[in-house]
Amino acid sequence: MDVVSALESALSAAGDVRGKGEAALSAFSAADHGAFVRILASVATGNGEMSVRKLAAVLLRRSVKNEDDSDVLEAMLRGCAHVDDGQLQGMFGQVLATVVMRGNDIDSKVDRLLCFAQEAYSMNRLNAVCICIKCLKVASLNARELVVVNGLVSRITPLLLLGLKSEMLANRSAFCMRKFLEAVFYLSPETVVPPSWWDGLSDAVWSIKDARVKSEIIGALRVYYRLKGGMLFEIAVKTLRGSVDEAAVLTGYDSDDGSPKGTKPLQANSIECIRESFPGNADIIFELMNLCVQACVFYSDLGDLFVEDPNEFVALHEDDSAPNFPRQSGPGFIDFLVDTCPLGQVIDAMIRIKQTLRSEQDVESGLWLAGNLWISIAQDEDRYQRFLSTWIIELVGCSLVAPLKARVLWSIWACWSDLLAVPEVCHVVVTCLKDESQVVALYACRAFGRIISDARMGKSELFGLVPTLHGIMKNASLETVHIAVEAICALFGSIEASGLDFRESGFPSIDLVRTAVVLWGKGADNDPLVCESLLNMLYRLTSLGCDSSWVLEATSSQVGISLISSLFQLPQLSRSIRPYVEQILQNIVQSLQSNAHDPLLWKCFAACVVFVGSCDFLVIGPHLSSAITWANAAGEDDREAVDYITKMICTLLQHARHNSAAECVKNVGSLDGFSHLVSTRDDGNLFHEISMCSLFLGQTEWLRLDNQTATRLVSLLDEHMSKIVAGCVMLLLKGYPALRNDQRVQLIKGCFQAQGLDEIWDFGVDDDPTDEVDMFKSSQEKEQYEGIALQLADTLRIY
């Protein structure tokens, strides 16, 4: 097997074949390493299978030693002229970087590389030039090695300029050139003025047609300016001015690395450069702000501004990875001007810009920047804020398309303050609530929630908005309906704060409830935001003094029962709903007659019972008894529903204990079928709860259990049971004298083991177990543990 065959075998999918190939390659390397390296270089630069060539290049980079550097360098340079594959070019660059940037002859090897690149360029072998640039890019990642090369900056600059002169090379090496240029700037001596080739570089950058490449180079220039100083401002302004004059159409994303294409990245980098190198000249503020407005123009369909995520009022392509990211750089630059220049000059520039807005896209961009400027101005700048509010509101009267109205509403929502509580703003929002565009109406709902407390609206105006907001709520999707519901809640809050009687509005509150039930059936209960807003709306509906009988109609359907059971979680509703609880229970029971196996109904039933208990109005009657009776008769297929009933009983008993309701506990124990349910359910939680209730009552007769059931506690007593179970066992032993002695002893021993009190068992009946209690107690549990231990000891002495 030769080296080529071994490489092919090493790429095999079969494990045994791949193993043999790897073993053969190791053997070749050990036998004659120099020959092995030369063969790998020959294979990598040859015309064989691409996968084999790539593997050879990878192995070559890992295997080459210092004594092989010269041979490998020459072999790679000879063979790189015809490498078209970008990935293989990168591998060649890594090999070259490995052999060039080490040893005592780095200077001579760098000179050889640069000389070769210039010769290749003169012969139009651009693949070879590209590989050389990638080599230096890889080498530049370790600047400490490059520092030892005397005059490296001036020596590798011609190679960079070669790359910039070739559009083909630029398209394929933009990122490499940026990293390379950053390395050049980083290695420049701290005291030097901008190098002699700076003007030539500026012209070369400007001549590049590909916007993405130009953007990469501008980004590298920013690095240079921060480190050394230079003419970055002039280059950036010239670049931005030229880019906005072109057709700045978005062209999507690059298929290779996902970065945006088109002029937008270039504009964003230029704006950042202007901000970082701004000389403070007030005479050019207007031009710079106007350039920012033009750079922030959204050239796609304006409808895309808010269709992506209507929950966010800036739901347009404005994240850092999106093609419109000048829309971040522009507001950032405006903020910078507000902080560094006289505010009056900035506002005057915005006034002038308003007169230049022509197209809908221009208006939207102006609104975008004006809204951000509004945020940036300090609260004490009343005059400027009022100007901007008028600036924005005036645009609403220009027959704006829906997206621009939404942008205005976003500005109102984002920038609202008491200083802007003017009737004109309120009028804009209320008008947009009735807009035929559902999306604009939703934006208006969000803004409405912000202004309503300062709106100073009259009774008829407030009442008149209820059907409007309800209509928006009915037409909204499940993803956006909470915006409308929150606006309704804000309206209810304003009506209540104004001391108005909502019933005088004439709006049937049941309509809101019916819509809420419909939304609940569509899955609103699975969305925490929608769920919370709906429950808050229903709560506010009851707080307005409306007839709460709507809960009865809501519980006429299974979906409504689920909604109302969620309302039981709100203790504020107890007073208004309490009179209807018994009827709600009857509606649930009626639904259970036709859907007896539905666990959701049992869950709602349990929630209702617990809620009733929290009102100190325990409706046990036939409802709870019928649930227990059904559970006793249920089969294995109904286990989930029975589990809900068991959980309900546990919750109800726990609530009764916490509220010292001893009669409630006894009443539950006296229900028909309860003893049978306890005796047939191997439920640790249930036994834990009846144990706690037994200790709470100080007796076990309330359970009405037979001896057989008491004996079954042995099988349920394990390390997972509560420590307090031991006390219940003691009570059971006293309450059921028919237990055999061996059963009693087994129960007692199980108690010791479950409590981790084996030492007490070892003491024997004549010792006082409380002497060892300190080993196990906490300060809060001392009395409890001592009582258990004494009862255990007392029982031991009996036997």
Automatic annotation (TrEMBL):
One of its GO terms (cellular component) is nuclear envelope. GO terms for biological process: protein import into nucleus. Gene3D superfamilies: Leucine-rich Repeat Variant. It comes from the Eukaryota. InterPro entries: ARM-like (IPR011989), ARM-type_fold (IPR016024). SUPFAM superfamilies: ARM repeat. This is Uncharacterized protein. The lineage of its organism: Eukaryota, Sar, Stramenopiles, Bigyra, Labyrinthulomycetes.
